[in-house]
Amino acid sequence: MFIPNTEAERNEMLQKVGLSKIEDLFSDVPKEFRYPDLNLPEAVSEMEALQNLKDLAIANDSTEDLICFLGAGAYNHYIPAAVDAIISRGEFLTSYTPYQPEVSQGTLQAIFEYQSLVASLTGMDVSNASHYDGATSAAEACVLAYHHFRGKRTKFVLSRYLHPHYRETIKTYFQGYEDIHIMGDQVEDGMQTREDLLKLVDYDTAIVYVQYPDFLGRVQDFKAFAEQVHAFGAILAVSVNPLALGLIKPPSEFDADIVTGEGQPLGIPLSYGGPYLGIFTTKNEFIRKLSGRLVGETVDNEGKRGYVLTLTAREQHIRRSRATSNICTNQGIIALTSAVYMSLLGKQGLKKVAKLNYDKAHYAADQISKLKGFELVNLGSFFNEFVVRTPIPVNELNLLLLDYDILGGYDLSTDYPELKNHMLLAVTEMNTKDDIGYLVETLQEVTND
Amino acid sequence: MTEPTIFEISSPGRAGVKFPTSDVPEMDVPNEFLRAELPMPEVSEIDVIRHFTRLSQLNYSIDTGFYPLGSCTMKYNPRINEVTARLAGFAKVHPLQPVETVQGSLALMHDLQNWLGEISGFPGVTLQPAAGAQGEYVGVLIIRAYHKDRKDNKRTKMLIPDSAHGTNPATSSMSGFDVVGVATDKNGNVDLESLRAVCDDTVAGLMLTNPNTLGLFEQDVVEVINIVHEAGGLVYGDGANLNALLGVLRPGDLGIDIMHFNLHKTFSTPHGGGGPGSGPVGVAEHLVDYLPCPTVGILEEGSEDYPPLYGFIEPAKSIGRMKAFYGHFGMLVRAYTYISMYGKDGLKKIAEGSVLNANYLMMLLKDTYKLAYDRLCMHEFVLEGHWPDAPGIHALDIAKRLMDYNFHPPTNYFPLIVPEALMIEPTETESKQSLDLFAEAMIKIAEEAKTQPELLKSAPHNTPIGRLDEVKAAKDLVLCCWIPERNT
User: Fold this and answer.
1) Biggest alpha carbon distance in chain B?
2) Exposure check for chain B: N or C terminus, fewer CB within 10 A?
3) If you average pLDDT over every residue of chain B, what do you get?
């Protein structure tokens, strides 16, 4: 199977090592613990393994079985066939971190292009080679801010409409820092406004984190907000849906210092939550404080253009305990996935897919707002997600929708007790007008008594 | 030839994907939000396919040759893993679907938690950490939470042997611990005197890599663990080198309290040019309540007629969430596939094969290269890449010259405690023939080092590009390219 040597070859090798049996290789392992009996299933062949995995897979209802209107940080988009063709190539898939640039130019140039594509899309000066996902990118942005102010600014102000998982992740990362105060995301009466958040910002604030479009789908202008944040010398970080940036202004236009985000909408399968892609970009002034890998352009001994990992002195394997982050991988093949996707769609495709999302979501919102018992919660401009007040609790409604093969929207009361009976619906290019019509009819039918 | 960047081949008006014509009315985007410029490349599908295919051909990979990169466990990545991870029922499932609609995913995760626990001897497992480094962070946060919960607030020291992975000290200081080094003795083990000297009631824990980065099994491992436990500290096991022990030893049985797994090393998920990894963490009984949330559990027991209902549970004293959603699920599917194909009696063959390959290769090379510690190794070993009669030749030159023989170089300059280190890990998926060829090349290079040193100094000669100017890269800092003027 995956171990080539035959018994005869093994014996020959053992003899060379000067041992008579395989067990002798483990003479350093305490004898009483050697070769435990493992309570695991018996081995299966590839054919049987595939069947077992298929049995598990069909026990799930996928977005091929259900019409999906669920988003909340992960979105159902079309992935062109060419993406998988490239990322399945063994030369990309089975290489490691490009420590030896002479035999890793493929990975290095691909990461360099990823950095360039992401910097162009976000409008920022520089992108790293990626982090794990949108949540850990947000946590790393806070780490950057903490070290930027040498630990002297101890307040992190997080918008209540930054993804709940991202806020939780930031709190987990900082539980060892007892002087840090994380605020801004407490329950309030009614909706938190930008002004509410600004009231918390002062000269002790290291970072202010907002999301664009935010967790409720809203697109807001942060220009005046950014000026206020900068007046206190704090860092403004913005978490984005990168696909939206094909259509709406990038955060660089309102002077964001750090732009992070979940790269999953850029050609990455839903895959039950991962692996996804942590986008991480900044202004030039933070380059030396970025965590994670960076690829830079250089030349070889004959002057030929080539690429290497650069500014590695920031990283854990050199600085060890003085490094500010322990990150030692990037998302590799997933970053490549998004680079191939962004290249294929290009300028026109990214605009087109973003506009399809926008138009379909607005059409769906308009149709649902006409339904009896449902109300579009008017929160201003939105991209491909919006909030609807429902006549019955969202979790109950979603179970009814499932009987009609519809995967309903996110139950906002999960994270926002003040938003009972509020559903966050996502509509993408994958939803046809007929799908939307079917959703609207079904919503009416299942709540019509 | 240099491959142009995707920006350089951009030609205005080209597109690689056609989307359907919209079937709903067009809506205007308010001007205040409408993006004016989108400076992205414009290329066709064949442009993209050729560009990235040509880039791929500039890479060395496991699929193209022997990749003995020490500490990275570059074993063959079975193709079936790629098939199972892409099944629609796994790849096209949304993480926030009602649990009733994702029982297949949850059953797989529940089984994998149990399997990893069984393999390692830990009753609690989280699959959430995104990579080994994040698994380490989970481990250190759990150590912190455990002492804090017991109001044992003096414990500020994290002990780290000098043979540890570079991430260990970084992880510890990220979590606010003071890092205290522990020396290695003359046999390559943790020096017990050095350990005893720093063990007191301020010790939070010890981060132990076993086998260590010298590829050696800690001969006094039980004693090491006892010393730390007696001082009230916990022992964290860095599981990066678990490949050497699969089915042969369960680290939990030794008394280790926490350990992370690297699914991308031990359990064959592809390294992907640097990621994604996957770093589940196993813990002993007294730490189960601190695991990150959520973990997968059984919400309603099954019966003969019904399977159980799987869902999420929040450990009582959880350190919290480490990332969005539940982990690198696609990697979990691959690892599950792999483990199921080895089964209860097959896993030990992985450890046996990797340890045999390493010892065989070490025997072939130890007369030519100085062996840092001459004893049976586990899955890897460390050689010194220098000779008194080849002045000016360094490990780096040997590494570069190996590329001319079409091998990926070993890890060099790590571990730090061996001068001119060459750290070689063949893994169990290499045949005797590939080891013989590699040894032949290494021996030839040792000869060249003495007779034609310039061959090594100017290597590599047969690669797509020569030695690169890393100083220029850091000084001039070009981190992005843009669409050239002529194309815009």
Assistant:
1) 79
2) N
3) 95
The tokens for B383 are 């050689």
Do residues A129 and A294 lie in contact, with contact meaning Cβ atoms separated by under 8 Å?
Answer: yes
In the prediction, which pLDDT does B1 show? 63
Q: Is the pLDDT of residue A317 over 70?
A: no
Whether A325 sits inside 8 A of B174 (CB atoms) is yes
Enumerate the β-bridge partners of residue B381.
B424
Q: Give the pLDDT score at B190.
A: 95
Alpha-carbon distances of A159 from A68, A183, A277, A283, rounded to whole Å: 27, 8, 22, 21
Answer yes or no: are the C-beta atoms of A184 and A159 closer than 8 Å: yes
Taking residues A337-355, report their average pLDDT. Answer: 98
The confidence band for A311, taking pLDDT boundaries of 50, 70 and 90, is confident
CB contact under 8 A, B324 and A345: no
| Cα torsion through B332, B333, B335, B341, rounded to 10 | 160
Amino acid found at A76: N
- Spatial separation of the C-alpha atoms in residues A125 and A144, rounded to whole Å: 16
* Region at A80 (left for phi over 0; alpha for psi -120 to 50; beta for the rest): beta
Average pLDDT value for residue range A231-237: 98
The C-alpha atoms of residue A85 and residue B48 are separated, in whole angstroms, by 11
Name the residue type at position A57. A
Q: Tokens 């813990």, residue?
A: B283
Whole-prediction pTM: 0.97
Q: Tokens 């824990």 label which residue?
A: B205
With beta carbons under 8 A apart, name residues in chain B contacting A293: 274
* Cα end-to-end distance, chain A, whole Å: 60
- CB contacts of B10 in chain A (<8 Å) are 346
CA–CA separation, A212 and A260 (whole Å): 10
**What does the block give as tokens for A341?**
């996707």
Instruction: List C-alpha distances in Å: B101 to A77, A399, A423, B96, B433.
Output: 20, 10, 19, 10, 49
SS3 string, A136-168, reads HHHHHHHHHHHHHCCCCCCEEEECCCCCHHHHH
Strand, coil or helix: B208: strand
Write out the two tokens for B235.
Answer: 């022992």
d(CA A395, CA A423): 9
Residue B487: is its pLDDT beyond 60?
A: no
Task: Indicate if ipTM > 0.85.
Answer: yes
Mean pLDDT of all residues in A102-114: 97
Task: Tell me the backbone φ, ψ of residue B234, rounded to 5 degrees.
Answer: -105, 155
- Other Cβ atoms less than 10 A from the Cβ of B454: the count is 9
Q: Which of residues 110-139 of B touch A (CB under 8 A)?
A: 115, 118-119, 121, 130-134, 136-137
Which of B96, B326, B361 has the most A C-beta neighbours within 10 Å, making it the best mutation to test the interface with A? B96
**What pLDDT, on the 0 to 100 scale, is given for residue B488?**
43
Task: Give the tens place of pLDDT for each residue, A253-283.
Answer: 999 999 999 999 999 999 999 999 999 999 9
Q: What is the pLDDT of residues B318-362, one digit of tens each?
A: 999 999 999 999 999 999 999 999 999 999 999 999 999 999 999
Tell me, yes or no, if A224 comes closer than 8 A to chain B by beta carbon: no
Residues 6+ apart with CB under 8 A from B377: B211, B214, B215, B216, B355, B358, B359, B362
CB contact under 8 A, A60 and B467: no
